[in-house]
Structure formats: C-alpha cells, structure tokens
Amino acid sequence: MDHILGEVIIIRALEQRILAEGQILPGEVLKVGSFLNQQIDTVLLKEIGGEIARLFSCNNVTKVLTIEASGIAIACAAGIAMGVPVVFAKKHSTSNLSGDVLSTEVFSYTHQQTYKVVVPSDYISSEDTVLIVDDFLAKGNALKGLIEIVEKAGAGLAGCAIAIEKGFQGGGDSLRAKGIRVESLAIIDKMTDDSLEFRPQSV
Amino acid sequence: MDHILGEVIIIRALEQRILAEGQILPGEVLKVGSFLNQQIDTVLLKEIGGEIARLFSCNNVTKVLTIEASGIAIACAAGIAMGVPVVFAKKHSTSNLSGDVLSTEVFSYTHQQTYKVVVPSDYISSEDTVLIVDDFLAKGNALKGLIEIVEKAGAGLAGCAIAIEKGFQGGGDSLRAKGIRVESLAIIDKMTDDSLEFRPQSV
Fold first, then answer.
1. Structure ipTM
2. Are the Cβ atoms of A76 and B79 closer than 8 angstroms?
3. Which of A158, A197, B39, B192 could cross-link to A123 by cystine, CB 3.0-4.6 Å?
4. pTM for the full predicted model
C-alpha cells in the first residue's frame, strides 16, 4: 500500500504545482521554470527520481539516457535513485568531443531548428538496458532521436520516463502505439490560454 | 572522525578517478566525460553532493546557482543534499524566457566566444544566500559571471563549490585572494601531456 500511496502523492504534487506555477505561453508552451526547468525544487526532484526508479525497478536498467540541458536534473535524480550511470546526449559536437560517436538529427519545435544529437559510442553498448528520461514530452521528436541512438548502440530499451507530457500533442501516445513503454508523471490532455486538464492515471 | 574520513575518501576517490579515466587534450583541456561530464557516475555524484553540503553546512545557504549544461548534475546533487532549490543560468535567452532578467557576459576559452548568461530575476532575491556550484574551474570566467549575477540580485554569497579545479590556470586562487571562499574537491596544480599533480589539501 505504501508505495501506491507514494505514487499518488507525487503525481498529485506535480499536478498541483503545474496548476499553481505553470505559465501557458503562446505556441502551446508550458513554462515551469520556477520549480522544474530553470529553478529546480530539489525536494520534488528527489521524489520524481524515486518514483521513476520505482516504476522501472523490474527492468534491470543499466544506464539512464537524457538530452541536455533541462533533462539532466531529472535524469540525475533518477540515476541516483537507481544507482546507475547517467549519459547525456549533447546537442552539437564540441571541442571536448573526440572518437566514435552515435548521432542523429532532431527537429526542435521550440527553437524551430534541426540540431545534431551526439553520444560518444563508448557510453552505451549492446550490453546496456537503457531508460530514457526527459522533463517534457510533446511531439516526441527528442525521444525518437534518443531511441534511435539506443538502437544504433544495439542496446535494450526499458522505456521512457517523463515528468510532464503534453498528451494533446500526441508524441507519447504515438510511441505507446509502437509498443514502447512511456511513463509520464503528469499528462496534460487539454491546454487553453488559461486552463489545463490532466489525464486521469491509474496507479 | 567519521565526516573527516568521509572527506578524505571522496577527495581520493575523485583524484583516483581523474588519474584513471581523465584524458588530457590539447589546449590544457582535461576531459572527464566518462564519469563526470557527459556520462555521470551517480554514486560518485551523490558523494560529491553530500560533501559540498557538509562543507557549507554552517552558511544557511538558500539557493544553489550553476550554469548550464555540465554544472547542472553536481548542482542538483548538492541541492538535494542541502534541501534547497537549484537555479541554473542559461547561456542565451530562449523563446521560453520572459520578464525581468539578471544577466552578464562571459568569455569561454573552450569555445572561444562570448555568451550571455541569464537568470530570471524572480529566482534570486536579496533575501537569498547563494552557493555557486560548477563542475570545472579554470580561469574563473564563468564563476565571475555568476558572482556578478548574485551581486546584481543583492543576495549574499556563501562561496563556490567545484568538483575539479585546474589550479595552474589561476582562476580559483584569484577569487580566494578577493576573500571569496572557493572549495574544490580536487585541485590540479600541474598538467603535462601525460601527467597530473594534485595540490595537497588539508582536511
């Protein structure tokens, strides 16, 4: 009973926080900079990490994979809770990068540009079971890029764990339809200029 | 005795890891991507966060401030250990950013360019005592920018906590000479193409 109660509490805590502090901006943007994105409530962050670890506890996850920059916090909280390393994909190659890489291209609707997503091939191998973690899921382009990187590495995919899914943008359900396990702690099914509606979740 | 022993262990663990896995690249670059930078050993990360919390436990820190992207992991580990929010400065304004901001300019030697560092002014106030956290300290330009942001906010500065300081590049000692408390878990005083020398640290 205890962990079911824990799950209800973290989902409700996140939903309440989105309602209280989320800002709806033009272009279907939900800004949660005050507690998750640019300022991070570390008490909530630790809870989110613990909940992700619980959801995927039976999957023998060996690596958490995310994409810079705003996914790093939640991925690290999940990695700490699971005791496994976190790898983050960089959005372009830097002067610190050398050697073989796994890479793909992702189109960002927020920034209206295509960028290269890169992970050194040393960091994910065919022996890994990877959990992809991100803060937001909208159309799913970033997740699809990360899934492609996991496939290129020949690694197993445990699934995707997300803090906030904008369900009305369809990315999550399209991945679920392909048989990929996608767990989002809060799913927004409707968003207008001044209201939000969450998808009821069974626990 | 216990926490002193803990400090020795974490400093030694980090130094040993740098010696075993760090790669020295041209331009005085030390790459620690395999355990701290792009792939993150979350067991080590949690220890680093706990050690930073211990070092600044008497300072009534209310906020941890870092800069995207590679500082986020260590800042979150420290913020979780201290139970205080983490704020990260962004390297350029994005379409998700609105309202009043605290900003400054920083020159990056790694990327040979000047970028704008931005924090929404809501996230740091004159009532805050800020601990600045970053993964690396070299010439200190990023830290100086973050210190300027803390000053612009009228907040107090507890100091700076760093995982790896390249002592031979002088940034840390120049800040210490100004009376700013800078704690680095590992300080490299000499770096050649194939060797590293750490500064002995009293515990």
1. 0.89
2. no
3. B39
4. 0.91
